[in-house]
Amino acid sequence: MSGAPSRVFIARLAGIAVFDPAGDQIGRARDVVVALRPDDRPPRVLGLTVDVAPRRTVFLPITRVTTIEADAIIFDGRLNVRRFQQRASETLVLAEMLDRTVRMRESGDPVAVVDVAMEPTRTRDWLVAKVAVRRATGRGLRRRGTGGRGGPTSVVDWEAVEGFATIEHGQGAAGLIAAFENMKPADLANFVHDLPEKRRTEVAVALDDERLADVLEELPEDDQVEILGKLEVERAADVLESMDPDDAADLLGELPTDQRERLLTRMEPHEAAPVRRLLTYADNSAGGLMTTDPIVVAPDATVAEALAMIRNPDLNPALAAQVYVCRPPTATPTGRYLGTVHFQRLLREPPPTLVSGIVDTELDPLRPTMSLEALATFLATYNLVAGAVVDETGHLLGAVTIDDVLDHLLPEDWRETVMDADADAADGSSDPEEEALRAGGIA
């Protein structure tokens, strides 16, 4: 392998761009697949899992990797686009090895796995030769969310530790989460979805409330319900408070009535109130799809003030496309709705201009009872990415965005099946080289 370093710590590969020989990026590295071998010999590296568009994880044999650098992995251009399916004889380094508690073979002392390193051999194979471990200190090896931080870290030979082949209950996830710290919520959700149920729960418990809320919003409903059910009630309520109200309402709507009410009562009243309102509307209506947190300004707000609100990096891009002008109060349900100001109009006006002077009053607002089909027609007709939802008395209740409309127009399991079908149709063939490599992995 040209450009191959003598040792590669695998946690550092997470999220690195993967390029073909022409320099085109085809995806990002997610994990490394290894085969544990008998007699405690170092595991053989079989290949990498790579996330490619759209939301698909494929297998890249290590024999096809030509270069590994600090910020790039280059392969020979041959890639089978079939979705990766882990086999019983295979282990994913980041998903399954990181944060494990193993023991030093000589002393029997417990240590936490911080990272794992692979090294090339003379025969051009790669083996997992080193393990970075952190020794237990203080009150125990691991505390929630810390991964046992605080003890000294050392790099030891693979043969110096034991316990990778056993099933560990209560495995931490701090190292795994750190490896994917910069991953977008949708990509992290795809990763979490592919984890075994036990590991999925461990990762969810270790994520902070905001990050877990972002991930839940991108997961299929079955995964959402499963994860929420594994959390303590107080924690589950905190996570729901961190979610967008419409997403929280969608999730709660999937739960039994008694469980839903128990969670709502544990939420802060001001956080639960908009969610309760959303639950009163039909799922596929404007009221059921809307968010209750659009950008709302009073008539005397200036263009500069409106633009400052749009610049909020936490805003959904569709919500940031326009502001809604209402008489006080500006929290939903607001005072009388006056109209919409699109962000392009804001960019064309002097900063001191009052928004009341540039408001668009020509578009009729959406009604909370409008159907999904009517919403899609409205947004398509006027080339909009969002629309105001106003009740019969003229109060703004929220806004419907194009991403929520698309989410409900697509099949319920689109995150899991729709995109796979396209890639499978493109290439459902097997790869002889890949099959030979993975079949002989434990030799």
UniProtKB/TrEMBL annotation:
The keyword Metal-binding does not apply. PROSITE patterns: CBS (PS51371). GO terms for molecular function: magnesium ion transmembrane transporter activity. It comes from the Bacteria. GO terms for cellular component: membrane. Pfam families: CBS, MgtE_N, SH3_actinomycetes. The keyword Manganese does not apply. Residues 423-434 have a biased composition (Acidic residues). Residues 423-443 are annotated as: Disordered. Residues 359-417 form the CBS domain. Keywords: CBS domain. This is Magnesium transporter.
